[in-house]
Write a structure and sequence with these properties.
single chain; 134 residues; Helix Hairpins
């Protein structure tokens, strides 16, 4: 059973990283979803594969039950990855409805003629307020 899960983790992670390398926002969203599923499988495989659920009763040994902590982490990761995927898909829908393509644009290599002082003023918000007051 564990080699099958390891193969599934490998395939999901590989497909997720491949999809993240594209510029389309839809492919990025699907790639992050695949990576999220592979992380969930990693978390679930980190717990013991016991025969009984993690319910404490008398006469049970600790090695007989499954560890509940990785299951709780996986449930939290499922909710977070679902919210992130829905947000990215909604962003792709908004971009495509506005007539544009839902693509990611690369960051600029340099900031042109701006000096480090003007950039620090721009990011701190002082540059806009000073220019609007004059």
């Amino acid at each position: 059973m564990l080699p099958v899960i390891a193969l599934a983790i490998f395939l999901l992670m590989t497909v997720g990283v491949y999809l993240l390398m594209h510029r389309s926002l839809l492919r990025v969203a699907l790639g992050l979803a695949c990576i999220g599923h592979s992380v969930n499988l990693i978390l679930l495989s980190a717990g013991r594969w016991g025969e009984r659920p993690p319910i404490v009763s008398s006469g049970m040994q600790a090695t007989d039950v499954t560890d509940p902590i990785p299951q709780a982490f996986a449930l939290t990761a499922i909710v977070i990855s679902m919210a992130l995927t829905l947000y990215l898909l909604a962003t792709a829908v908004v971009y495509s409805r506005r007539g544009g393509r839902a693509e990611l644009i690369p960051a600029p290599e340099n900031d042109g003629e701006q000096s480090s002082e003007s950039l620090s003023m721009e990011f701190s918000g002082r540059g806009e307020r000073d220019s609007s007051c004059s």
